[in-house]
Amino acid sequence: MILEAVNLTKKYRGLTAVNSYTLRIEPGIIHGLIGPNGAGKTTVFNMLTSLVQPTEGKVLFLGEDITRKRPDQIAGLGLARTFQNIRLFKELSVLENIMIAAQIHKKYGLFSTLLCLPSFKQEEKEIVHKAEQLLETVGLIALKDHKARSLSYGNQRKLEIARALALSPKLLLLDEPAAGMNPNESIELMTMIKNIRDQYDLSILLIEHDIPFVMKLCEHIQVLNYGQLIAEGNPEEIRSNPEVIRAYLGRAAEHA
Ligand SMILES: Nc1ncnc2c1ncn2[C@@H]1O[C@H](COP(=O)(O)OP(=O)(O)OP(=O)(O)O)[C@@H](O)[C@H]1O
Ligand SMILES: [Mg+2]
What we know:
By secondary structure, the chain is α/β, with parallel strands linked by helices. The chain has helices at 41-48, 71-77, 94-102, 110-115, 118-137, 153-165, 183-200, 211-217, 235-239, 242-255; strands spanning 3-12, 15-25, 30-34, 56-61, 64-65, 79-81, 171-175, 203-207, 220-225, 228-233. α3 packs across α5 (118-137) and α5 (118-137) crosses α6. The protein starts with a strand and ends with a helix. The site of magnesium ion has 3 residues, from α1.
């Protein structure tokens, strides 16, 4: 098991945002988490990555209890994520955004960096090379010297994915990767996510409101409603589940 969440609960004053949520992710799986606005999906991601401390429950990553670890420690262990509200260094270039993340794993410290020792020079070359490879993967290499701010919304989302990949993760969490993309862009993104899973040999957990996207891409899907897990299964099981249709899919279809 890559990741296991056991009875994760988050309470805010009068509100239970997530109630006794359980998750098991096997290696190589693309796992979807869906549900209406405010269902608790982002709160689940925040608990898995320690941005929010769970009120109850625990998270095991590669068998290790990471519930009380810091977000940077968790990223260092190989659990990387993107954000629903894009978080990039807007004034830095596309390439620099990736290089900063890639440096988390660098061997040489500030000392050799300041003195520009050969070890540092070699390492910097490797980091640039890795960053460029990642930009190839997400189709942004031609824009590497542009400021992140100047990218389209869809390309900023791709850049966030590349930045997460720079941490060499075993598990990648994507919070609404297709949000704001046009239909062609989301089809392209779907192919890209599959390639990433295969090429980098990792598991993916994604939140998404685009139901056709989730149904085509994910092998296993969970549905949250008012903080409660109401269904879990393969796309066919989810599509035909009466409670899911009543709580979410019916409504999503009305809005489509
Ligand atoms: N810091 C907080 N303080 C109080 N309530 C919060 C906090 N963060 C989230 N909530 C509440 O918890 C519930 C779940 O929010 P969350 O952002 O996890 O939902 P979501 O499923 O990601 O929704 P969306 O699809 O709109 O992104 C909501 O009712 C939200 O208002
Ligand atoms: Mg959310």
